[in-house]
Amino acid sequence: MKRWWRRGILIFVLLGMALLGWWLFAPGCVQQMPPAQLEAEAAKLRAPALIARGEYLAAVGDCAACHTERGGQRYAGGRVLATPFGDVPAPNITPDPETGIGRWSFEDFWRALHEGKGRRGEPLYPVFSYTSFTKVTRDDALAIFAWLKSLPPVHQPDRAPRLAFPYSVRSSLLAWRALYFKPGVYRPDPARSPEWNRGAYLVQGLGHCNECHTTRNAWGGMEQDRHLAGGTIPVQDWYAPDLGTQPGGGLAGWSSQDIVDLLKTGQSARGVAFGPMADVVRNSTQHMSDVDLQAVAVYLQALPARAPAPAPATYTQAASHAQGGELYARQCAACHGKQGEGAPGVYPPLDGNSSVTAPTATNAVRSVLLGGFAPATVGNPRPYSMPPFAQQLSDDEVAAVVNYIRQSWSNRASAVWPAEVGRLRHTPVD
Fold first, then answer.
1. For the residues 78-82, what does the mean pLDDT come to?
2. Closest by Cα among 287, 322, 304 to 408
3. DSSP string, 341-400
4. Does domain 318-425 have CATH number 1.10.3720.10?
5. Which of 13, 142, 202, 383 has its CA 20 to 30 A from that of 324?
6. Rounded distance, CA 34 to CA 41, Å?
7. Whether this model's pTM surpasses 0.90
8. What is the pLDDT of residue 20?
């Protein structure tokens, strides 16, 4: 009875917020710009240097990843972005006048990026990462807009979100925005170097790294005191690691060059990009300049040390550890080495690998089940891949070999149980 009473109160509060949000964010008429102003803006947007800069910045922001349906035309939308609250298809952002942003002014685009509001003033769902994009400067936003306006228009109508109630009531976002969104362009820290500030701007803003690499609460809000400290990506069920390189961080011991190499080629001496990060490298970071990649590395290296993690629970069944060792010797050692040392430039090491020793075994389990596929990049056009073992190994066997890897050599990570392997085996793959 108490549970239903609390749920009723919650729904009542949300509906009240929704009504207030409707009053504040009720869609209005689109403000029309005078013809002379429209013509002047259009001429400015045609500047080749501005368009070229916008193309680079759109790659840094990985805009195509969300706004391109698999097998579809770039930036024409349609890709369904799954959330714990329902599905939100990404919109068409080509300059088609009917179904895209052809009739948008720069002020419309700036409002979406900076304030998280649509052309008619409606609040946008935060699956669009305006919580990070708000930090982008007007000059950079203008360049991105110029690039998008230069694309061939694609006539592809947007699809409506499929969200559960009360999340389907768009104006209920008032409450979410009040709690988790603070608009504001990035302000450089005068106490830091220009290189650190550039890295902070890219990581916090256009690169929107926090959107995956930070824990979210039940309402989908980022826990601000855990900036870049790692978290499970909702619905996708991949673990985005802690990006700290100081003691206790998920990338502890990584050098600046290790970070640059991974972002540039998808592979470094400390590990490879796989899962969702492989797509980020393929579509975005490999196209970044060396100067910007180094700035990102400088910023990540300056993240504070983390508190020591509690001692992990070990898998104490000796028979299972022996089984894992046998499976490793038979299936893994030929590539990753008998001592988990890997093969430099070819196969990643498993001893001390941050993906192996992460707080959760999710990534290690899914790599065994689905295989490991590093991105093909200009710097590494033919990467070696790891085959999937989902059809060959049972849940018990996958748990055994993953536990063996996570608790051998210098690794001292927590155990995974066969039931968790079974759950991850049936996680949908985008």
1. 93
2. 322
3. --BTTTB---TT-TTTSSSSSHHHHHHHHH-EEPPP-SSSSS--EE---TTTS-HHHHHH
4. no
5. 383
6. 11
7. no
8. 46
Crossing angle of helices 290-301/194-201, nearest 10°? 90
Q: Is the pLDDT of residue 211 over 90?
A: yes
Q: Check: CB of residue 114 under 8 Å from CB of residue 185.
A: yes
User: What is the token pair recorded at 342?
Assistant: 């890997």
Q: Do domains 194-301 and 318-425 have the same CATH topology?
A: yes
Q: Tell me the C-alpha distance between 203 and 288, whole Å.
A: 13
- The domain 194-301 having CATH identifier 1.10.760: the answer here is yes
Spatial distance between the Cα atoms of 340 and 8, rounded to a whole number of angstroms: 54
Residues in CB range of 224: below 8 A, 6 or more apart: none
Conformation bin of residue 332: beta by default, left when phi > 0, alpha when psi is -120 to 50? alpha
Work out the end-to-end distance of the chain between its first and last CA atoms, rounded to an integer number of angstroms: 39
Residue keyed to tokens 């106490």: 191
Name the residue ranges covered by the structural domains of the chain. 35-180, 194-301, 318-425
Peptide bond into 388 cis (omega under 30): no
The confidence band for 167, taking pLDDT boundaries of 50, 70 and 90, is confident
Q: Provide CB contacts within 8 A for 213, sequence distance 6+.
A: 228, 229, 230, 231, 240, 241, 242, 243
Distances (CA, A) of 218 to 25, 333, 346, 361, 411: 24, 41, 40, 22, 32
Contacts of 283 (CB under 8 A, 6+ apart): 59, 62, 64, 65
Closest by CA position to 90, among listed 98, 99, 80, 82:
80
Closest CA to 53 of 335, 289, 235, 261: 289
Q: What is the CA radius of gyration of the chain?
A: 23
The torsion angle over the Cα atoms of residues 289, 292, 297 and 300, rounded to 10 degrees, is -140
8 A C-beta contact, residue 35 and residue 43: no
* Segment 355-394, tens digit of pLDDT: 999 999 999 999 999 999 999 999 999 999 999 999 999 9
Adjacent-strand bridge partners of 68: 77
∠ CA 107-113-116, rounded to 5°? 100
